[in-house]
Write a structure and sequence with these properties.
The complex is a heterodimer of chains A (about 350) and B (about 350).
Chain A: H1 2-11, H2 15-45, H3 53-65, H4 74-106, H5 119-132, H6 145-165, H7 172-195, H8 200-210, H9 223-238, H10 240-246, H11 250-255, H12 260-282, H13 288-300, H14 304-328, H15 337-359
Helix pairs in contact in A: 2-4, 2-14, 3-4, 4-9, 4-12, 4-13, 4-14, 5-6, 5-7, 5-8, 5-12, 6-7, 6-12, 9-12, 13-14, 13-15, 14-15
Chain B: H1 3-19, H2 23-39, E1 43-46, E2 52-55, E3 62-64, H3 67-75, E4 82-86, H4 99-104, E5 107-109, H5 115-119, E6 125-128, H6 145-150, E7 154-157, H7 159-162, H8 175-187, H9 191-211, E8 222-226, E9 236-238, H10 243-250, E10 254-255, E11 264-266, H11 269-275, E12 279-282, H12 290-306, H13 314-317, E13 321-322, H14 327-330, H15 336-347
Parallel strand pairs in B: 3-4, 3-6, 4-5, 6-7, 8-10, 8-12, 12-13
Antiparallel strand pairs in B: 1-2, 9-11
Classes of the chains: A mainly alpha (about 350), B alpha/beta (about 350).
């Protein structure tokens, strides 16, 4: 597989290249960390309604200090809607960047994305079932939309696991085929349910959610995805060297002391749980998990010790910006986040690719 | 050769024979013309884009796209001609006097009627509440104009609903709904009944208008139609081309999304909170029973009371909720006038009794 070889070459780097990668990673973090702060600030200051800048900061200060909100709508808009939404965008973006990087290593395929393993199809089925069968916020079987989505993610995780472990290997091909097959199977049910929606508006609402939306962000819903992203980051960083070895092929990794099958199992659990959590809070936001690892690899190289944190940071910046565009691009309506990620992400990826080819 | 083609040949033969009858045919033509003059045929109607369809006689077998079109035909007294419907009425959703008849109407599709079933229904008229461009998400399921023609089915739209998204101007009164009723009355030969229905609607809406005539625009309460079943993560705004905008405006309230052009548009909660409406309608879809509807209204109200961004809104704090179902607000029909009256009575209790 040429792509694998290319990634392998990137990780089997000589000393000078490794030093260059480390410097590039420091530079990337130095740029991305302030960029994230700027993006978060812009996201809190701008929106579909006009809130004077001074009022925005007063509302944030009152929120942070736990002071009583000022009567009226400005505190509600800034502290209950914009701030949690901006933070959720950052968390989900970071999570998608991480999980995309991990899945690409797990199945040794640069075209892999977080949704390849079928987990998001289960989550989407759960969410759509909650909207169509449970109607509104009432949910399905007493589950809210997010819980139903997570239950769907776990169910598809169990199915893919059962299929992939037969033969004992969790081989990349088996994982991908099981994920794609079960994902397609569950997507069929999802599409059937979409057609069962009561009417045009309900269908529209379901499709909007399927294309990704951070509109349901609340303070109470931030802790779980944030914890999941942090835990996944820690778990993946702890396995960063093993991930590097995995990209060189199973035999090479085994010769370096990596228990390949066990590592794949662990990666599958981490990526599945994180994908389930992310899809349950934001729908299936496409492209970020596919594009971010590539963009970051072009800048900092393929060493996962650097790639993972940079991908998380870049994913966070990207999704905060994308969500801001989705909320403000059109005067009287909101765009699905997935539409904007594709419109912004694809040209960005192509530009980076072009630059890289020119350098080469 | 298909049966329909044989019918065509036989009809042509029959027509030729009649034409050869000389003086006899002249007499029957005169009689036909007199009958048509009495019933108002031929009748021409247009679709959303202005294309005309002409009817020389009232239809004998009608298929309706959904419960709203079916109900309208029942109001017009043409319910016995309905040979099938899509989106059938849920339990308890049609007025009591039509319930038995509505239950007997064959269901050709639980949602959009499949193309084959519609074309093979034997109907000579299809009354459509949906625009062919959107077709309720059932892309490609709607027959083309040629297919309708080939099957001998004339196609009319209830334009107040079907053409809303293509409409050029805001809808602030029920004239579009009334025009639909009158047009369907002309097509089905029930113009007199249509005129009665429209007069009854106008009586109600005129009474509301008169009671509120000295309430200036700025003093009218702001109003948000909360489409609970379209999902709570992404609120769906009712914009100014939608029938609901006309209902809300005629009831003496100001739709908070009255400045947005179109029928429905996804917005963010920020837009809703910024408007801080005086009143919120809990627009839930009919669940088929009083108890289930009450539960759905309660759920919608509970969501607004517990969602941090909405719990402190004026309408939520004051409990200014209207428990009026979605269908009779967003789908035009005879009962739209009752919805106008109900909203007006709730938001202007001292003026509209």
């Amino acid at each position: 597989m040429t792509a694998t070889a290319a990634v392998g070459e990137e990780t089997a780097e000589p000393v000078r290249e490794r030093e260059h990668g480390a410097a590039a990673a420091r530079w990337a973090c130095a740029v991305l960390a302030p960029a994230l702060l700027v993006a978060l600030t812009a996201s809190v200051c701008l929106g579909s309604s006009q809130v004077p800048l001074g009022e925005v900061w007063s509302a944030v200060a009152r929120g942070v200090s736990g002071g009583d909100p000022v009567p009226g709508t400005q505190d509600l808009i800034v502290w209950q809607l914009r701030v949690p939404r901006a933070l959720l965008a950052a968390v989900v973006g970071a999570g998608l960047g991480l999980v995309g990087t991990a899945v690409q290593a797990l199945v040794r395929n640069p075209l892999a994305d977080p949704y390849l393993l079928g987990i998001s199809s289960g989550a989407s089925l759960g969410a759509v079932a909650a909207i169509v069968l449970g109607a509104g916020a009432g949910g399905l079987l007493g589950l809210g939309l997010s819980s139903a989505a997570f239950a769907g993610a776990l169910a598809s995780f169990a199915l893919v696991w059962a299929m992939a472990r037969r033969g004992g290997g969790f081989s990349p091909l088996r994982l991908v085929l099981a994920g794609v097959g079960i994902g397609q199977f569950l997507s069929g049910f999802t599409h059937y349910l979409v057609l069962q929606a009561g009417d045009d508006q309900q269908t529209h609402g379901v499709l909007f959610w399927l294309m990704g939306s951070l509109g349901g962000a609340q303070w109470s819903g931030l802790a779980l995805p944030a914890a999941a992203v942090l835990l996944a980051l820690a778990a993946l960083l702890a396995r960063a060297r093993a991930l590097n070895a995995l990209l060189m092929g199973d035999e090479t990794a085994a010769s370096l002391g990596v228990e390949v099958a066990r590592l794949r199992r662990e990666l599958f659990v981490v990526t599945s749980v994180l994908t389930g959590v992310l899809v349950s809070v934001s729908g299936a936001i496409g492209f970020v998990g596919l594009m971010v690892p590539h963009a970051c690899r072009m800048v900092v190289g393929g060493d996962h010790r650097r790639l993972l944190p940079v991908a998380a940071l870049f994913g966070a910046v990207l999704l905060v910006v994308v969500d801001l565009v989705a909320r403000t691009a059109l005067p009287d309506q909101e765009l699905p986040v997935g539409v904007v990620t594709a419109l912004i992400g694809a040209p960005t990826l192509l530009y980076l690719l072009d630059q890289r080819l020119e350098k080469a | 050769m298909r049966p329909r083609a044989w019918c065509g040949v036989l009809a042509a033969v029959a027509l030729s024979a009649t034409a050869c009858g000389g003086g006899e045919s002249k007499k029957s033509d005169d009689a036909g013309a007199a009958a048509n003059a009495k019933t108002g045929f031929p009748v021409s109607v247009s679709d959303c884009s202005g294309a005309k369809t002409t009817f020389d006689a009232a239809p004998k077998r009608i298929v309706t796209s959904n419960a709203a079109a079916l109900e309208l035909l029942m109001w017009l007294g043409a319910g016995d001609k309905v040979a099938g419907t899509g989106f059938p009425p849920g339990k308890g959703t049609v007025p009591q006097q039509f319930a038995d008849r509505a239950a007997k109407v064959p269901v050709l599709g639980k949602k959009v009627i499949p193309k084959e079933k519609l074309l093979g229904s034997g109907a000579d008229l299809y009354v459509d509440s949906f625009s062919s461009m959107k077709n309720m998400g059932g892309m490609g399921m709607a027959p083309t104009a040629e297919e309708f023609k080939g099957a001998g089915i004339s196609h009319v739209y209830l334009k107040s609903t079907a053409c809303a998204s293509m409409s050029k101007a805001a809808r602030t009164d029920l004239s579009g709904v009334e025009a639909d009723i009158e047009e369907l009355g002309r097509v089905t030969g029930t113009s007199a009944r249509a005129a009665e229905l429209v007069a009854g609607m106008r009586k109600k809406t005129d009474a509301v208008r008169d009671a509120l005539k000295d309430v200036p625009e700025a003093k009218r309460p702001s109003y948000f139609f909360f489409d609970y079943d379209a999902g709570t993560k992404q609120p769906m705004a009712v914009c100014n081309r939608q029938v609901a905008n006309a209902v809300i405006t005629q009831a003496g309230a100001r739709n908070v999304f009255g400045d947005c052009a179109g029928d429905f548009k996804p917005v963010d909660w920020e837009s809703v909170v910024a408007k801080n409406p005086d009143w919120i309608q809990l627009g839930v879809r009919n669940r088929g029973s009083e108890e289930a509807n009450r539960k759905a209204f309660d759920e919608a109200a509970d969501f607004l009371r517990t969602f941090p961004a909405t719990k402190d809104l004026k309408a939520v704090k004051e409990g200014h909720f209207l428990r009026i179902g979605s269908e009779r607000t967003t789908i035009g029909g005879v009962r739209s006038a009752d919805t106008v009256r109900e909203i007006a009575h709730t938001v202007h209790p001292d003026r509209v009794k």
